[in-house]
Amino acid sequence: MTGEAEDWRPIPEELQQVVQLLQHSQSPDTQTQRNVQERLDQLNLHPEFCCYLVFILSKLKDEQVANRSLAGLILKNSVRMLWGRLPESIRQYVKNRTLLAISDSHPLIRATVGIIITTIVIHEGIAQWPALLPTLCNMLDGSDENLQEGAMGAIQKICEDSADMLTAQEHLSTLIPKLLYFFNSPSSKLRALALNSVNCILLVQTEPLNNIMDVFLQHLFALANDADTEVQKQLCRSLTLLLDSHLDKLASQLGNIVEFMLLRTQDPNEATALEACEFWLALAENPQVCREALLPYLPKLIPILVRCMRYSDMDVAVLKGDIDEEDGAIPDRQQDIKPRFHRAKTQTQTQRKSDISAEGEFMDGDDDGDDDSSTEWNLRMLFDAFLYDVCYCHIRKCSAASLDVLSSIFNDDFLPTLLPILKETLFHNNWLIKESGILALGAVAEGCMSGITPHLPELIPFLITSLQDRKALVRSITCWTLSRYCHYVVQQDHNMYFKQLLKELLARILDGSKRVQEAACSAFATLEEEANLELVPYLPEILATLVEAFNRYQAKNLLILYDAVGTLADSVGPNLNEPQYVETIMRPLMAKWAALGDDDKELFPLLECLSSVATALHEAFLPFCEPVFQRCTALIGRCLQQSQLAMERPSEYDMPDKDFLIVALDLLSGLAEGLAEHIDSLVGPSQIIALIYQCAMDSSAEVRQSSFALLGDLSKACYHYLQPHINIFLPILAQNLDPDSISVCNNSIWAIGEIAMKMGEDMRPHVLGLIPALMIVMNREKGPKTLLENTAITLGRLGISCANEVAPFLSQFIRPWCLALRNIRDNEEKESAFRGLCNMITLNPAGVLAEFIFLCDAIASWNNPQPELKMMFSRILHGFRQQVGDLNWTAFTSQFPIPLKQRLANQYDVYRFDMLLYYFYEFRLSVRMVVKESGMSFSRQAFYNRIYRQRFSPDGNWLVVTDSLAHLYLFELRQALELNACSNERRFKYRLKLDEPIYALSTVHSRLICGNAVGQLAIYNWDDITDCNNSNPCDPLCKFSGFPTTLPVAPPCEINAIACIDNSCMLYAGAGDNAIRLVGIDRPDKVISTFVGHSEYVNELAIQSEHVFLSSSEDGTVRLWDIRSKNIYIFNVASEGNLRRNNCGRGICALDVEGDFMVCGGDVELAIWHISSRSFASTLICERPSLMRYTVAKMNDDRILIGGSCPDLIQFDYSGQHLISVKTSLRNIYSIETNSLSANAMTTVAGDSLLIDAFLNLGYVSFCFSTT
To answer: Could you give phi then psi for residue 141, rounded to 5 degrees?
Structure first.
């Protein structure tokens, strides 16, 4: 091909070749299709090929429309892949010719042109084509309807794909008025496209419409009676979007809008009805407004939703095979089988498995029901597994989800309307109506459980009977609905419902319908989790059924069957270890293990199943161990070999799926863990040590993570095989102590600890190379619990035989070491760590002087230490007492709570006389006091004065404070301000004792919300708290322990942050399992949405608007979650070169938002970021310690307040200029709060102290609140 693109003309012969190629592409012959594709690939290497394609699209009017359109689609793909590499002249030619074709008489060509234009904008940016939007807008002013439609179609596609590129001043100020004008167009197509374009803009940005919102609403409401179905669909979508951004503007018309949506939800057009149904879900996201708006309409809305849950005639036609036919013997198609993924094992000291996801999904925009991910983000996906994967069921799914979420808002207020409907539908002769009634009963199970419980004695037998219905879809939905009521069934006498339900579920597991098999197996797994050991008497029948299912199930349902078997093993535990049970269950599992190929992803769920079964069977698993072990080692070897070939010859070999490698490593790790020394005979003749070495050097973090877990397990089980190679492995482990890769670092540290226990003094040459990295991990603020525990235990174990090497560093890690281990149970790992610590203290007692109180607290955490360890503790405590003298000892320990003093006295007899003196001796704790004796000092900065959170009451009259001793203090502000100025300390009014320390605190309306260290949410009424007293403490309005979750994290996980949505009854809770959950304040046990994406634990949350919030995490990112548009934006803060600091981590702890700006920092530098552009505006620089970690940020009216691991309250203005740093009485600042109510206005700062500093003026500390 030749020619300059500016005056480009096609060469006729070459043009004809391209046209013939397009014509041949329509051939049904496979070989012809293959030849065409090869030729297209060759032509794409030539830039001028794009010119030929756009020429055919725009100029060859006599060519078939299908071929012209195909030329445009091929051009679109070329733009997507090659645009940046095309010469400017060719790019300009393509743009010009594309715009000339926008008025083509054929709608297909006009649509194709719009696709090409939006693809260019995506890859080039709207700024690089400044004439585009003005040109399209000018086209709208013409009289040619084809030109108008083509231009409007292109605008709509640009708005859909690139609305975030459009700026208010440059683009939208002109575009939006033009779009509003076309709301009144006589062409229904133009009306629909214009409204669709505005909706696309609303999804991304609402500010451009703010100034003309009243005009927009007038135009919008004028379309209410429009006869066009697409206009009606887009109108429903607009009103739903406006609920999020401009609810205040809709408030006066909300009644009329509800009436309109009731009508449209019943629209015969499926797409319109679905958009209208989405309105109810959107309204439910603001429960208070939803309750007020919908309560009068429930008698209309509930029947409509239940009717929409019926299968339509089209559904029945599509699902005909699932209604009448038994398809259990028909093999699944490949597309029927949902993919499964395996996550690498994270090792803990107590041998509990807890998987940490490297990266999660936030929202799944694909609503086709094909995603089996554990990261469902809202209730719209809740029913996918039960409502089936056909497009005609979308309104059914959305209606069922709406009924579920609305029932959780209205609770028993639902029942006066719903119960008569259920009575009519459940017992109806028409199976379609009956099925919808059963679905409705299941949908309201959580929201209406209280009111529906009296009816369950009638409903449960009916449902059990319905499991035998002749229609498969009725049987399958009944399985699901019964699973929603399993908790109730298990609580009753077994003779009432349990036995019959179990019998019928087992029968349905063997049903002839694959859909019923799937639903029954899932329901049975739920029953297993609820019943646990109550299943033991029924194991013969259960196992017989599950084994028969292995013979019958096709590939897809086998995945669910593995889960049911694994859950059974977890539920009944060692009760499965009976000879007859072992033989029964292992035979099909091992047959599947042998039948599966090494590249079959069915290995993943089978692995998880075998791991659970092996744990339950213990030594009874030994006869099956050899083939599993050999298969795993062969799989590892083959995968490593393929990986090596792919790296050496990438053009010839593809990189293997390393999930298979991880699967094999994790299963071997599980075998070593469960079988201990019995695995010795298998390890000896194998090549597993060499394979672990190769895996430990792999580039994949998950492969290294699993290899370190196996290395540690083999160290425990058969160290003698590792011993000759240990000097090779230890440097590799040392290279993987980067706390930014938490799971790899965790497993590496754990393996070092296990190896140290075996090596003894031979470990000494390696210790000094390990200590610096271990101390960095140990000293991380709010590091992951498991990582800190493993690090502390490994440091302690190094002290058993290498105390001389570790003891000099004792002062640099003793405090976090004690904090990490004070709360874990007595066990061998903890004992070994404390024995090592005692050895280090004997060599370097001065190393614990400054933090001696933390040591006392850690020692007191033991319930029953072994005699040898108890004697070591006693010698240390008595030695320190003798060294400082009884008087100083008494003065120092007077700060201890009485329970701690009693435990130390009872266990170690260190208070022979001063327990009596305690009651007569009053010691007033100052901000920081040091008792000196013989040149030694004790820090009076006690462990018990760490204050994590504080909040002011909504009326501004009270301050609530929580500390690390699980106390909640209340201070009356008016009383504090009236005290004589000479009194520097204000004492608390009330003090409540809670079960666990509070890490998160928030307030909304009249409620105080607390999130604690073990994943509990407690909600108090402010009036109850402020009226209580110490002798009559108040109880929370509701308390919920743990979150229902499918996330692979072992509970409990601490709640680190809570953010409440203003004018709403909803809150977000960020937790130590890296996830954030949206819950209702009135129903905190009901998780509405789960947001997953952070790879480390969540530190802080901040609300930007009603449907946009931000989260900061230890993974170095801040994420913006837009729950209306289902978008997530990631601020890679720690990756910003100007912000990262040497020798520091990447965690982001401090976070706050004001308008379109946020401030954040932590282990990285503080910076102000502009949210919309996702760029940082300025770095906040001032004098501070070089390794300071910023822990809290607050954006006040005129300044930004910052606290962290130094005593200063640092203040900046909004330009980033440092204003002042004010000394506080704290060592570390964890919380800053401002009370803006004028009567009691103040700012309070809390952290490592018994005191909370109060600022009436931000220039100095005015007084202190005291928790003593």
So the answer is: -80, -10
